[in-house]
Design brief:
Layout (H helix, E strand, L loop, with lengths): L3 H8 L3 H9 L6 H14 L5 H8 L4 E6 L5 H16 L3 E6 L4 H13 L4 E4 L7 H4 L5 E4 L9 E4 L1 H14 L4 E6 L9 H13 L3 E6 L5 H14 L5 E4 L2 H14 L8 E6 L12 E4 L2 H16 L7 E4 L2 E3 L5
Parallel strand pairs: 1-2, 1-3, 3-4, 4-5, 5-11, 6-7, 6-8, 8-9, 9-10
Antiparallel strand pairs: 10-12
């Protein structure tokens, strides 16, 4: 395997000159630069990226931690993050935490050791103290970690407001909201708060059930128990399209016709929401824009620029056939 010394010898320059070419440091004539690149090509020389990153104190690698990249929302988000990061000259190291605190902490420490330039945190488990000791840039997705860490989210309160009002306007008199875990400090909890505010303000009976980011069949079990305990529920606002899809499945299995007997509103507008039968009414998060903004805010931090702590993008109501 060729070394930097072999490249320098073939190009007729010093090792320092080759290093300066590789790291784009100092003045190098085009003729010298060309000789170095030709020597590298002839020898099939592959630079040591770790050594280069240590020298430059910059790796052009970003860490992304998500609960589960197979979840449709996080799959779409990850896809947009990777595409936009690559466009901006960065590569993405993707980590699945699977809601495991120990695993998430291991990933954070691993990313620090491997000199990533910053982290996008899309997982919601460990204490903020595990982040606050970090000296490199962090952007949180849908999580308010601390006063010093910026986050990207959608207008969750307005999303819950529109969804709940729609169900009531369509004639629902007993509502259920299936939320995420409310004990975690996340802007997504504002969906729950809007649901409670609207249902209470309009004197409509309601129930709230908490669901973890979980398997589809576990969502179905939760909804089965909801229907057993409250068979007269006629409207569901689900905090994700996955939960809403599970509600449609369970409704079909227990003989509730959607939307005649049960109206359902989801949240996210992930790719398959319009292909569900019946097509899902949902709150559209701008997932593409959330991915791009997460990268922009992170790179701005990396480059030492001032960034806004709260980055809230607008949502929209997409009415289809489940209401």
């Amino acid at each position: 395997m060729a070394t930097i010394k072999d490249v320098a010898k073939l190009a007729g320059v010093t090792v320092t000159t080759v290093s300066r070419v590789l790291n784009n440091r100092g003045y190098i004539s085009e003729a010298t630069r060309k000789k170095v690149y030709e020597a590298m090509k002839e020898l099939d020389y592959q630079p040591n990226e770790l050594a280069r990153s240590l020298y430059r104190r910059k790796s052009n690698i970003i860490g992304l931690i998500v609960p589960n990249v197979s979840h449709p929302f996080f799959a779409e988000f990850t896809s947009y993050v990777e595409a936009y990061a690559y466009e901006m000259g960065y590569k993405v190291l993707i980590c699945n935490s699977y809601q495991d605190k120990a695993k998430e902490k291991d990933y954070v420490e691993m990313l620090k050791r491997n000199q990533v330039d910053g982290i996008i945190m899309g997982s919601h488990t460990i204490d903020t103290s595990d982040y606050l000791s970090s000296t490199f840039p962090i952007v949180a997705l849908d999580r308010d970690l601390s006063d010093n860490i910026p986050y990207v989210t959608s207008d969750n309160y307005n999303g819950g407001f529109l969804a709940t009002n729609l169900l009531i306007d369509k004639g629902c008199r007993k509502l259920a909201h299936i939320s995420g875990p409310l004990e975690i400090n996340t802007p997504a909890n504002k969906r729950y708060q809007a649901f409670v505010d609207v249902a209470s303000g309009r004197n409509v009976e309601y129930i709230v059930k908490e669901a973890k980011l979980d398997l589809f069949n576990n969502y179905k079990k939760l909804i089965y128990s909801l229907f057993i305990d409250h068979p007269d529920i006629d409207g569901i606002f689900a905090s994700s399209d996955m939960i809403a899809t599970a509600a449609i499945h369970v409704a079909n299995e227990v003989g509730k016709e959607v939307p005649k007997d049960l109206k359902i509103v989801g949240y996210d507008d992930i790719g398959f929401a319009s292909f569900i039968v019946p097509p899902l009414t949902t709150i559209r998060q701008p997932i593409k824009e959330m991915g791009e903004l997460s990268i922009k805010v992170l790179i701005d931090q990396i480059e030492g620029k001032q960034v806004e702590r709260e980055n809230v993008l607008p949502i929209s109501l997409i009415e289809r056939k489940t209401t």
